[in-house]
Design brief:
The protein is an alpha+beta fold. It has twelve helices and 38 strands. Strands 32, 33, 34, 35, 36, 37 and 38 form a seven-stranded antiparallel beta sheet that branches. Strands 1-10-9-4-3-2 form a six-stranded antiparallel beta sheet. A hairpin with a 5-residue loop joins strand 3 and strand 4. The longest helix has 20 residues.
Length: 590
C-alpha cells in the first residue's frame, strides 16, 4: 500500500512466524506492487531490508551466498554488507539501497517502508551522499594525481570523496573516453561507447570535482620532485603536474608478434580499448578471420563473431604449448569442453602450433599465415589475443621499483618503494592473503576495483597521519578473493580463488535431488564444477552453469580458508558449515 507520502511506499512483506529464529537468512519479498526487496535476518534475529539485485549486472542476490553479515553475488562475486547495503568487494561501484523495517509486536507483521525512487533504481552511489566543498578544511591543500582511467582509478576517486577528501584530484587518461566497463569489450566489441561508461558522461566528474584529463599520456614520473610529465594528443608541448600523492593504474599493453616481419600490417588487430573493439567489430564482416592465441579475450571474441555469423570463417591458433584453450588455467578437460562448444559453432582450432610466418601483400595486409607445422591459412583479418605486458615503460627512470617483467611491487596498502606513490590493478604484484602473503599478479576486473579502494584509504591515512574510517588499507595482505568470469555462447564460466600451482583437478556436478555426478556426465551436460587441488586442499574452483557454487566457495575461502578434498561432496550439497546459510536453493544448477 502507499504511505501518506506519495514518494514513499509501505507494505507488509511477511510475518515473523514465517521466518527462522535467530538464523542468518535472506528472502526476496514483494513491497506491495511497487517492487521487491531483499529481507535479511542476522543471527541475532534483527531484520534488514535492502535492494534485491546486485548493483553490478543485476543478479538476484537471493541466489547468492549470505555469510557472517555479508551477501556475495552469485554471478561475479561482488559483496555487500547485510546490515548497511554498502559495497564491500567488487566488481561494480554502487551500494544497495537500505529500507526501513517495521515489526508489529502484536500481529508479527513485517512491514517495509521505502522511497519509490530507491525501489525503482535499486542502487546507491555512496560518493554522491558526501558533500564535497572546495572551501572545506580537510586535505584542501593536498593534490592526488591518478594515472590511468580504469576501475582502480574510479574506485580510488570515489572512495576518496566518500571518505571526505576535499583536495584536488586529477586523473590522467590516455584514452578519449571516461572510465568504462572494459570487461564487456571482448564479449560485445560492437558496444556503443555511452552504454559502457561506468559513470555516464563528463558531468559526473565535474560534480565530484575531479579534473579528468582525457587524451593525455603520462610520459615520465619524477618521484623525488613529485611531478608527472604529460602530453595531450592535441598539444605539442609537455606539461608538468605536481602531486602530493600519486596512484598508478595504467593496466596492460597487448602483446604483438613484433619483431616478426609483417607484424605491423594494417589488418592485424589487438583489443585493449573501446575504440579497438569498435574498429574490430566493424571490420570482420565477410572476412576470413584468424585469432592468434586462445586467451579469454580471444575466445570471447571468437564466440561473439561466431554468434554474429558475419565472418566467412573463424580459426583459432592456440599456441605451441596448448593442446586446448585455457590448458594452463582451467586444465585440459574443461578447456577441451569449451573448445568443443566453439567447434560446434563452426570454429576451427589449430592446437600445439604457433605462427611461424606472416605473408603480406603490397597493400601491407596479411594474406597468409604459415604455422609452425607448415600449415598455411588464408586470412583477411588477424586478431591477437596473446596476453599483455604491464604499461610501465614510462617509469623506467622514476626510481619506482619494477620487477624483471615490468610489474610494480607494492605492499598490502598498495604502496610502492617510494613514499607517497601507490599503484594497483594489472600493473602490480602484491601480497595475496589467501596465498599466505605470496606475491601475486592478478589481472582480474574485480581485483583492480579492490586495489583502488585500498589505495584510497592508504592515501587518506597518510594525509591525516591517523586512523581513518574502518580498517581498510591496514591489512598486511590483500584479503579479497580473486573472482573472474567469462561468457561464451550465452554460457557463463565463473572462477574463484587462485589456482596457480595446482597439482590435480577434480571435476564433479550436482544432478537431480542433489545426486553427485561424475566428471564425464557433468562435462557433457555443461553443468560442472572443477576443484583445483594443491596438497589435498582446494585452492580454486571453476564452474559452468553451477551458480552459486563459485560465490559460496569464495566465502568459504574468505571465512575458513581452502576446502579439504574430503569435503568436496558435502560442499556441493551445501553441508560444510556456515557459508551460504539461509541461501535459497543453494545447490541449484541453472
Amino acid at each position: 500500500m502507499m504511505s501518506d507520502d506519495p514518494e514513499m511506499v509501505e507494505a507488509v512483506v511477511c510475518n515473523m512466524k514465517d521466518l527462522p529464529e535467530k538464523q542468518e537468512f535472506m528472502k526476496e519479498v514483494d513491497v506491495g506492487s511497487s517492487g521487491k526487496c531483499l529481507l535479511i535476518m542476522n543471527e541475532n534475529g534483527d531484520l534488514t531490508a535492502l535492494g534485491h539485485k546486485c548493483t553490478h549486472y543485476g543478479a538476484p542476490l537471493v541466489r547468492g551466498a549470505l555469510n557472517n553479515g555479508r551477501i556475495r553475488c552469485p554471478w561475479h562475486g561482488a559483496c555487500f554488507s547485510a546490515t548497511t547495503g554498502d559495497i564491500e568487494d567488487y566488481p561494480g561501484l554502487d551500494s544497495l539501497p537500505k529500507y526501513q523495517v517495521i515489526v508489529d509486536d502484536e500481529s508479527g507483521d513485517v512491514k517495509v517502508r521505502a522511497k519509490l525512487e530507491h525501489l525503482k533504481v535499486g542502487k546507491r552511489n555512496a560518493c554522491m551522499d558526501t558533500e564535497i566543498r572546495s572551501d572545506g578544511q580537510q586535505h584542501t591543500e593536498q593534490r592526488i594525481v591518478i594515472i590511468g582511467g580504469g576501475p582502480a582509478s574510479i574506485v580510488c576517486v570515489e572512495t576518496l570523496r566518500k571518505e571526505g577528501f576535499t583536495g584536488s584530484i586529477i586523473i590522467v587518461c590516455k584514452e578519449p573516453h571516461p572510465p568504462y566497463d572494459r570487461a564487456k569489450l571482448s564479449k560485445a566489441p560492437d558496444a556503443i561507447p555511452q552504454d559502457v561508461y561506468l559513470r555516464g558522461d563528463l558531468k559526473y566528474y565535474d560534480d565530484i570535482k575531479v579534473d579528468l584529463r582525457l587524451n593525455t599520456e603520462a610520459l615520465s614520473v619524477d618521484a623525488e620532485q613529485k611531478k608527472v610529465v604529460t602530453r595531450a594528443c592535441d598539444e605539442n608541448e609537455d606539461r608538468s603536474i605536481s602531486f602530493d600523492h600519486l596512484f598508478i593504474a595504467t593496466g596492460g599493453t597487448p602483446r604483438t608478434l613484433h619483431p616478426m616481419t609483417g607484424s605491423d600490417c594494417n589488418n592485424i588487430f589487438v583489443l585493449r580499448t573501446l575504440d579497438d573493439a569498435n574498429k574490430l567489430a566493424s571490420q570482420c564482416k565477410d572476412k576470413r578471420v584468424a585469432l592468434v592465441g586462445s586467451s579469454f579475450i580471444a575466445m570471447e571474441i571468437a564466440a561473439f563473431l561466431a554468434k554474429k555469423k558475419e565472418s566467412t570463417s573463424l580459426s583459432v591458433i592456440c599456441g605451441r604449448r596448448s593442446n586446448v584453450p585455457f590448458q594452463s588455467s582451467l586444465g585440459p578437460d574443461i578447456g577441451g569442453r569449451i573448445m568443443k562448444m566453439h567447434e560446434e559453432k563452426g570454429i576451427k582450432f589449430y592446437t600445439s602450433v604457433g605462427v611461424a610466418e606472416l605473408k603480406c601483400n603490397d597493400e601491407k595486409n596479411v594474406t597468409h599465415i604459415r604455422l609452425s607445422d607448415d600449415t598455411v591459412l588464408e586470412v583477411d583479418l588477424v586478431i591477437l589475443g596473446i596476453g599483455v605486458t604491464p604499461s610501465t615503460n614510462f617509469l623506467q627512470s622514476s626510481k619506482i621499483d619494477l620487477d624483471d617483467k615490468g610489474f610494480i611491487p607494492v605492499d598490502g596498502n598498495m604502496k610502492t618503494n617510494v613514499d607517497s606513490v601507490y599503484a594497483g590493478g594489472d600493473v602490480v604484484t602484491f601480497p595475496l592473503g589467501m596465498k599466505g602473503g605470496e606475491r601475486c599478479n592478478v589481472q582480474h576486473w574485480q581485483m583492480a576495483h579492490n586495489h583502488g579502494r585500498i589505495a584510497a584509504y592508504s592515501i587518506i591515512k597518510s594525509c591525516e597521519d591517523s586512523q581513518v574510517g574502518d580498517s581498510h588499507g591496514k591489512d598486511q595482505h590483500v584479503q579479497s578473493i580473486p573472482f573472474f568470469w567469462t561468457v561464451q555462447f550465452g554460457i557463463s564460466i565463473r572462477y574463484a580463488g587462485h589456482g596457480g600451482g595446482f597439482d590435480n583437478i577434480i571435476i564433479k556436478g550436482v544432478g537431480k535431488n542433489g545426486k553427485i555426478v561424475k566428471a564425464g556426465e557433468a562435462l557433457s551436460s555443461k553443468k560442472f564444477v572443477g576443484f583445483y587441488v594443491k596438497k589435498d586442499h582446494v585452492i580454486a574452483v571453476a564452474t559452468m552453469m553451477a551458480d552459486p557454487i563459485a560465490a559460496r566457495f569464495a566465502e568459504h575461502l574468505n571465512d575458513k580458508g581452502p576446502l579439504k578434498v574430503d569435503q568436496i561432496d558435502s560442499f556441493l550439497k551445501g553441508d560444510t558449515g556456515d557459508e551460504g546459510k539461509g541461501h535459497v536453493d543453494k545447490c541449484s544448477i541453472n
